[in-house]
Amino acid sequence: MRRVQCWSLAICALAFFATVGKAQEAAIVSPEPGQPIYGLVKFVVEIYPPDLTVKSVEFYLDYRLVDQRKSPPWQTEVDVGQENAGHQFEVVVTPRQGKPFTARLTTPAFNVNASVDVKLHQLYVTVSGEGHRVVDLQRGDFTIVDDDRPQQLVTFARGDIPFTAVLLVDASSSMAGGRLATAVEGARIFARDMRPLDEAKLLLFSDRRLKETPFTNLGSLFALGLEGLSAGDGTALNDMLYLAYKRVQQRQGRKVIVLLSDGVDVDSVLSMDDVVELGDRVPALVYWIRLAPNQPAGGGLVSTWRDRKDHAHQIDLLERTVDKSGGRIIAVHQPQEIGPAFSDILAELRAQYALGYYPQPEPPPGVWRSVEVRIDRPGLTVRAPDGYRTER
Prior knowledge:
Elements: H1 2-21, E1 25-30, E2 40-48, E3 54-61, E4 64-69, E5 75-79, E6 87-95, E7 101-107, E8 121-129, E9 132-133, E10 142-146, E11 149-150, E12 153-158, E13 163-170, H2 179-192, E14 199-205, E15 209-212, H3 237-249, E16 254-261, H4 272-279, E17 284-291, H5 308-325, E18 329-332, H6 338-350, E19 353-357, E20 368-375, E21 381-383, E22 387-389
Parallel strand pairs: 13-14, 13-16, 16-17, 17-18
Antiparallel strand pairs: 1-2, 2-5, 3-4, 3-6, 6-7, 8-9, 8-19, 8-21, 10-11, 10-20, 12-19, 14-15, 20-22
């Protein structure tokens, strides 16, 4: 009787390992094998067989546990930092039946001359065709030309890349008649729909800074202290846009400034030339939700600081600042168009590509470097920053 029982257990064990142990394995599919990485990286694992019942999946980066998941999708996001170094990825899968199994992946350092300390330059690129954003391009579709020299693309990402944004909302007298309330509500919708790793702050201004929230991903904070706020006074747009650049200057990753205004500045001490000089050193995407002004922009306008010609020059510089940053101008004519404009900007940020490269040869400090992003596919339009100024 005992022999029959032992024989049955042996058969069961053989059957178990034939159907479970032999087939169970994991594969790290992101990051890509052999590719250098930088900043925020998606850590994605596939488990075989797909219908395997899994108790837990542990994610390790450089031998440190960074996350644990107990249900699919089997993925997380990790920050590998900005050092030029290789990294060790490991995943430990614990099934409900059988022993744990692992998968490992090592990514290399960037292939640059070790004697040269060159910072990775990151470009955030929007591609469109036939009126729609194009989101299916691959690494090999892009060519970066820096200072007339093709560059080696060392990082590539697309889709949901975290960002830090300043929502710069004009609350001057030109925002009366329900415009201000609609603008603040649009900013709240923008904040509400952000992802956990995104951050934004709301900065309201007239001829001075009126209200400023901390950087947060909680849309509820955008409502604090805004009760009873009314539109009034003049507009110090240049001063506040300069401040917005300063707010994002020390932040990591993708930087975004969303300006909502008619663009007519009458009270700033700074000129747009000062803003342009700072913007050349701070790589931020600038979007301008451009409200139809009560009068033609700069036309016939005279203020304490500027004559008609200078006002027109300020508007022209603002337009060029938006264009050269890789952002765009969204014209709105009615208050009800403000909310959709904020949502459209957020949708565009979700569809951008992040392209990283080490400028070669090493640029000297304090110089302007022109940049062009090319795509070897007809019928597509590329929007990207047109250059940057190196640090002194």
